[in-house]
Every structure is written in C-alpha cells, then in structure tokens.
C-alpha cells in the first residue's frame, strides 16, 4: 500500500528543532489507527512495514482523557485546529517513566491522502532560535580543549548526502567535511542549514561549560590533595571516595551536541547521543528547575564496570523573557558515592547522635533506600543492591514488601497501557533426552507404495497435494518473515504499568504488621528540587506471601479473562471510525508486470488449471479401479 514511503516521508519533515526535544509528530488514518507515533513499536529502529491496528488512544498515556478523545474525533473528520491539554502525562523514550506537562496539539489532514497529521508541542516550549541561511564556520570549535569529547547525534546534518560521509558521531569529522568544500549551500535544504547553524551555536555554549567542567575537576584534585594531609583516616577514606566518585561531567543540547569531560569516558554516552530518544534528557527538560537522578541501566554502563553509575541531570534555561531550554547538564557518579553520602548523613544527624538511634550504617538491622519517582532504586545501604545486576531495578523486585505497602497506601499512582497485538514465547513441554524411535522401510512398504491400491488411499491425495503445490509455489523460505528470530511464539496481550508519585505526597511514618513482626517505615520526600524519596525501614518481615509478592516492571502477559474484561469495557464506549474515501495504492511509475514473482513463480491460471486436472485424474483413476 506504499505505507513505508509515506511514514518515512512524513517523519522526515517533522520540524524537530522548532518543536523541541519533547515535541513529536504522529499520523492516523480515518479509523483512528496510528500510522506512526513515537510510542508505536518499531522493528530494528525503523517503523514497521505494516503498522498494526493500534488506536491513537492506546498509544497516548491516559488515553481516556476527554481532550484526547476530542482530538482524535476532529482528526478523523479531517478538521484543522489546536487543542490544549493541561497537566497530562507523557511517556519517556525508554517507557519506564511518565512526566507531567501541558501541551498544544495541532492537527490537519494531508491533501490527497487519507492520513491526518498531528504535532504535540509542550507549552513550556514557546520559542525557538532562528539562524542565518549560510553555512556556519564553527570558529568556536577551535577554542575547545582536547580534554573533552565533542560528539553529535546520529542525525542527517548533511541532508541526503549524509550517507556519503563517515561522520563517526564526532563534531570534528563533520567540520572537516564542511571545510573541505565537499558540501555547499546548494547541496542542502533550508532545514539542513538551520540544523548546522544550531549546532554551531551550541558549540559556543559548550565551550563555556567546558571551562566550568575543568574548574570542577581542578577543585576535586585540590580537595583530594588537602584530604591527604588530614590525620583522621576514616574521614580521609570517605572524602577520597567522594573525590573519585565523579566519573563524568557532560552537557547535551537540543541541536544534538554532547560534550563529555574527560574525553576518555566518551564511551559512556555513545548509546544516548540522540537527545530526542534519551530519557535523561527528555525528563530533565520536563522537570525544568529540578534535578533528575536515575540509575539508568542503559546509560553509563561499560562491560568492565562492576557497578552502575547514577546520573544527575538538570535542564539549562536561557534568561527571561525567552525561557528557552537550550541544554541539559549533568554528571555521572559512582553508585557507591551516593550510598556513602546517605550513610554519613544519617550517622552525622544530631538527632541520631543525641538519642543513640540506629542509622543507615547499621546494615544488619536497617534498610535505607533512595527511590526515584518511577519506583526504581537509585541507592541502598545494602551491599547486594549496589551491583550492576541490582542497582536501578524496580523496588517491587528488590523489596516487594516495601513496594506493596507504598502502592497500597497511595505513595505511588500508576497508569496502564495495553498491547493487544503482542507476542509471547511458548513454553516448550518437557521431552525425553533419548533418541526417538525411527521407522525402517521394508520391502513390503515399498511394494505398497508401488501398488495401485496405494494411489486410492487417503495418503495418496495428501502426498500428491504436497508435491504438486511444492512445484507450483516457491520454496518455504520465500515466505520467511524478516523479523522472525526462529523462536516459537504465540499471539498474546500484555499490560505495562508506569508509576509516579502521588501529587502532594508528604513525609510520613508508618509500619507494616505481619504475624509476629512489625516493620517500621520512615519516608521523606526530597522535594521540590529532586525526584527522589529517602526511605529508612527495618528488615523485611518473613512469611506473609501476599505482602511479599514480587512485582515486575515492564510488559507482562495478561490472562484471557482479564483480556476479555478489558475488551468488554472498551466495547461499551465505541470509537469513531470513518470509511476511507480514497485509495493511495496506485502510482503511475509502478511496474506491476512482476507482481508476485518473488514468492509464487506460477500464474494463478496455471495453478487453477493444474489443480482441476489433478482432481479429475484422481477421480477417473479411482473409478477405473472400482
């Protein structure tokens, strides 16, 4: 139906630099099904060849909100307009978190097609920079230090000619190409030149931050030197750990530039250079003045690391009246540094010292956690929680009892998204490890095959049918699905839950009672400047299977009864559909003379004639034998 070309072209023309890193485009057909959407499943980073029938309401978080239903209906009708949605939820690129924000939704129909196009732009993104229409000289790049790595997003900065060059995601290689004269203004579109100009502007900002990074590193080195003169061995050890714990300073921009200091740690950011698809970046932009801390398992993890780094990030907004969020700055910290800070803070508290209370240093009796707004563990005083296999995991897996208490007491709220076109692996039944018995043909069997009676048996038709159709049709590999990995799978439905703090949640003290065990809980919200809560509690109570039920994060298969109930509820609120009024499956340049040649080399007429002749031959033969 030409869907591949259409989706790629529509996405290509999305004005990313104008709508910002959290803005996005989407398209639907007259049935309300998404043609493309950032939350739609992709195959190997690309849009699917045949997008499944997933409704727009199922792709947007809180799809039942009235504003979204109105948007969908107006788009189906082919209207044009703008709808504002206040304090709604948006999904992070890694689908682990949701963020609160307000946004404008602009929509229109696409001429001579049945598609409707939409744009979502956060209200906080009211302006964007405009630059000259000439190629930039990147003169600020000469001022940068070799101690920092300047990397760029995997975007088409050189338009359609990007594939002709090896950019290697480095700014230096891009500048070399521009200075070589291989690319001229005539080779690029106006949008391509704006991307390059934006990147050059970002370099000017980055050089200033690079000087700041250098001062931070210098201060840490100076602090380490002074610590070595201190006689107190314990203080010396702890503070040295703090000095060494800062692994990386980084800055990323809307234009796709990422600066890493020191340059030797650039590999830590290689998988997150596309800021539009980096969760730390989009979440920091939504958080505005707050710090986002997360033990992101996709960021800052190298194969030889024995731990996961904790990422702290904050957006940078230009001075008023622009209020333009231009970049995100951050740091990667050794997860153990966060743990030491948490333990030392509790031990040095005047209340704990005066009253001789247990602290986070008493790891045998006290469990301490830093948990983020999505329910993931950022730090813990328990050593087993700090490994790269544990840090950053969902609290429902690390401490199910504590998580169930929080959720049941409305510390967290959740949203659920359903995927009714998912696949699940089939559990194989156990079989014997021994060889199966096998059948050895005998002369008697060969005689039966050659005898006339064999041709009139039920097997004869199956055998002829198999061989005839093997001859008529192409080999089975001609029908192979390129997305299949050979695993045995079945259709199923899955549910995914994202969690967020209950709005207005404050500090509290409570307890969990189970059998003869009481587990005290003290929770403190570290707000409004961060996305964390600090939890101090006792050891988990043993027993109580319902309270200790593990809660997994991510897509989970739902049973048939739950699926039927959900579909039944959806059927109570029918969704608007409109019959297609046009067809876009024809192109004057299409050559249809070879249609079907890839998998079925014989014509349909030949197949029909052969099938009829075979059936007649078998019938006549059976009549003669009678």
UniProtKB/TrEMBL annotation:
- Example GO molecular function: voltage-gated calcium channel activity
Q: Where is the Voltage-dependent calcium channel alpha-2/delta subunit conserved region domain?
A: 228-596
Its GO CC terms are: voltage-gated calcium channel complex
**Stretches assigned to coiled coil:** none
Source superkingdom = Eukaryota
Please give the start and end residues of each transmembrane region. none
Name of the protein in its database record: Voltage-dependent calcium channel alpha-2/delta subunit conserved region domain-containing protein
Organism in which the protein naturally occurs: Pomacea canaliculata
